[in-house]
Amino acid sequence: MEVLEQVWYSAMSNALAEDEVSLFEKDMKEFWIQFKMSYGTEQNNQTSALRDLCKETIEALSEKWSKKLKEEDLMIDKIREYNNEILQQNKYIAEKEEQLTEIKAKINQEEEEQKNLNDSIQKLKEELRKKMEIKSSKNKAAKEKVEQVSKVKALFEEHLALEIRRIHDEQLQFIFRHIDHKDPDKPYIFTLSINEQGDYEVTSCTPPLDCIAELQLKLRETNNFSAFVANVRKAFTALSYKQSAGN
């Protein structure tokens, strides 16, 4: 009997335990169903709100970036415009620099030509100065020679029966008389001038003397005009005696 009771109590206990588990599982299922329903609704609400927020955010960002892109497009256009202006300015500067280079080259050429002209003028002035000095020196020498001839003229006219005449081209003609004892008035003549070098030069001699070139050279070397005139007279006298002896 006791054994049967124990078996019955054991069976009842097991039955009660199975019912409690079933109830617990049922309650848990209902809880999860309600939880899921509640969570799903809240999640749907949150998702919808998040979707709206995202949409608003995207629209705001789109408007902001669209505005920024427009500003950047304007900035790019401005940069392009500035670049074009810079290119035009660079082109203008390059043209002006080329013109400036040409002007500088022309100025340098003109300066070089002016320098060459100044050098040429200076050279001509120097040559002219030298020529003037030479001319002045020649004029001085010629004047001294004329003065010397004038002094000799007075002396020789008195003592040697010499007549001196000024003829064309600034030449002096020397006429000796009283050489030929048979014909005292017979003239013996030589013509003297001063050449471009400032030297004495016998341009004619009548009658001709073989020694006239030698006497001229000696005159140039010594510049002793009195001795030259005396030697020419001696040569004429010797020629006269020779001609008289020949006749």
Automatic annotation (TrEMBL):
Task: Using the UniProt record, give the first listed, main subcellular location.
Answer: nucleus
Key words of the record? Cell cycle, Cell division, Centromere, Chromosome, Coiled coil, Kinetochore, Mitosis, Nucleus
Pfam families named among the record's database cross-references: Spindle_Spc25
Q: Which InterPro entries match?
A: Spc25 (IPR045143), Spc25_C (IPR013255)
Could you mention a single GO BP entry for this protein? chromosome segregation
The residue stretches assigned to a coiled coil in this entry are 79-145
> Does the keyword Metal-binding feature in the UniProt annotation?
no
Question: Where is this protein found?
Answer: Chromosome, Centromere; Nucleus; Chromosome, Centromere, Kinetochore
GO annotation, cellular component aspect: Ndc80 complex; nucleus
Q: Which family does it belong to?
A: Belongs to the SPC25 family.
What quaternary arrangement does the UniProt entry report?
Component of the NDC80 complex, which is composed of ndc80, cdca1, spbc24 and spbc25. The NDC80 complex interacts with mis12 and zwint.
Task: Tell me the function of this protein.
Answer: Acts as a component of the essential kinetochore-associated NDC80 complex, which is required for chromosome segregation and spindle checkpoint activity. Required for kinetochore integrity and the organization of stable microtubule binding sites in the outer plate of the kinetochore. The NDC80 complex synergistically enhances the affinity of the SKA1 complex for microtubules and may allow the NDC80 complex to track depolymerizing microtubules.
Q: What is this protein called?
A: Kinetochore protein SPC25
Q: Which organism is it from?
A: Zosterops borbonicus
